[in-house]
Amino acid sequence: MASGVTVNDEVIRVFNDMKVRKSSSQDEVKKRKKAVLFCLSEDRKKIIVEEGKQILVGDIGDSVEDPYACFVKLLPPNDCRYALYDATYETNESKKEDLVFIFWAPENAPLKSKMIYASSKDAIKKKFTGIKHEWQVNGLDDIQDRATLAEKLGGNVVVSLEGKPL
Description:
Helix content is 33%, strand content 32%. It is α+β, with helices and mostly antiparallel strands. Strands 1, 2, 3, 4, 5, 6, 7 and 8 form an eight-stranded mixed β-sheet that branches. It is globular, with a radius of gyration of 16 Å.
């Protein structure tokens, strides 16, 4: 069931910026988003980029030690969100980067919120063409352990996530 919620153009622009890995200057790389949250607008008619809820590549090492732990802290404990996380991981063969679309629907979010986010998920997913990994998360227990994300990315072949061994 579709909710009739539309996706703001800014959301699509952010996705395209994260997806396209064009060779860019160091300054451009630093401004690239590592993680970003999307929420519903106040009137619940549009999916928008949530203000201030992002991690930039340039923040890593400066104000952000562990981008994954920092990302988990951005998630609201009592409401739903959509998120894009640019995971950097290693297998025995190679280093990889993949975008992960996350649907955050914690157990204690209001039922109405869960329903509208669930019914609007297709609208945002249709705009995110080429996403290989999708993950629905229903609580901090599911997302805090980076091994769970590693499993989504490549099962038992992933040996490290964000430079941290599993």
